Amino acid sequence: MRLLVIEDDRDAADYLVKAFREVGHMADQAGDGEEGLQLALDGDYDVLIVDRMLPKLDGLAVISALRAQSVETPVLILSALGQVDDRVKGLRSGGDDYLAKPYAFSELLARVEALARRRGSRGEETVYRVADLELNRLSHEVSRAGQEVQLQPREFRLLEYLMRHAGQVVTRTMLLENVWDYHFDPQTNVIDVHISRLRSKIDKGFAQPLLHTVRGAGYMIRDGAR
């Protein structure tokens, strides 16, 4: 899943983003309502996690603005305001779920996954396929020719990004910014190492390779039979 955390408490936001990434999800963060609204409008997110009390534009105003522009991305509201009236107000503003602080990350994760499944049931793409390779974004299952492929969280994020852009060249910069969250090339071979591991898991033993290196440009997932 690709998630957006809109939270002005930097420590809380960093904790959530790190926790989501550790279980294999992609997560961005915004520190105020205006930035969060812009990212939510521009990005392709599966679920938004929105704090109620935000600078510049409060959380409920962010949600109302999104709904007014026909953005139907599921929203889970996080707030220290946990009374019944607070929860009702949040849901009526356009939120899909409401979780009061403090919370357990395991419950937050379960609620986020439930919202993503609900969205998927309305026709959003949750499974990527390239030839006989299949990736399920919600269950985190990957298989090729019906055989299960075991991936580490970072490998899953890498494959998900490549399959999201199947048939297109994905540059190193794109991977650093979207899978590793680096906004510069630190002259590391981390991408080469992960590409090599991923290739060994999805292509080894199959006649047609799907993960291709495009010299001087980057990488591409495509049907090798084409």
**Averaged pLDDT:** 87
In DSSP terms (H or I, runs of 4 or more residues), the helix count works out at 8
Low-confidence stretches: none
Give the beta-strand count.
Answer: 11
Topology:
Elements: E1 2-6, H1 10-22, E2 26-30, H2 33-42, E3 47-51, H3 59-68, E4 75-79, H4 84-92, E5 97-100, H5 105-121, E6 127-130, E7 133-136, E8 141-144, E9 147-148, H6 153-164, H7 172-178, H8 190-202, E10 211-214, E11 218-221
Parallel strand pairs: 1-2, 1-3, 3-4, 4-5
Antiparallel strand pairs: 6-7, 7-8, 8-9, 10-11
Report on this model:
The chain contains eight helices and eleven strands. The chain has helices at residues 10-22, 33-42, 59-68, 84-92, 105-121, 153-164, 172-178, 190-202, and strands at 2-6, 26-30, 47-51, 75-79, 97-100, 127-130, 133-136, 141-144, 147-148, 211-214, 218-221. A five-stranded parallel beta sheet has the order 2-1-3-4-5, sandwiched between helices. A four-stranded antiparallel beta sheet has the order 6-7-8-9, with helices on one face. Helix 1 links the parallel strand 1 and strand 2. Helix 2 (33-42) runs parallel beside helix 3 and helix 6 (153-164) packs across helix 8 (190-202). The protein starts with a strand and ends in a 5-residue tail after the last strand.
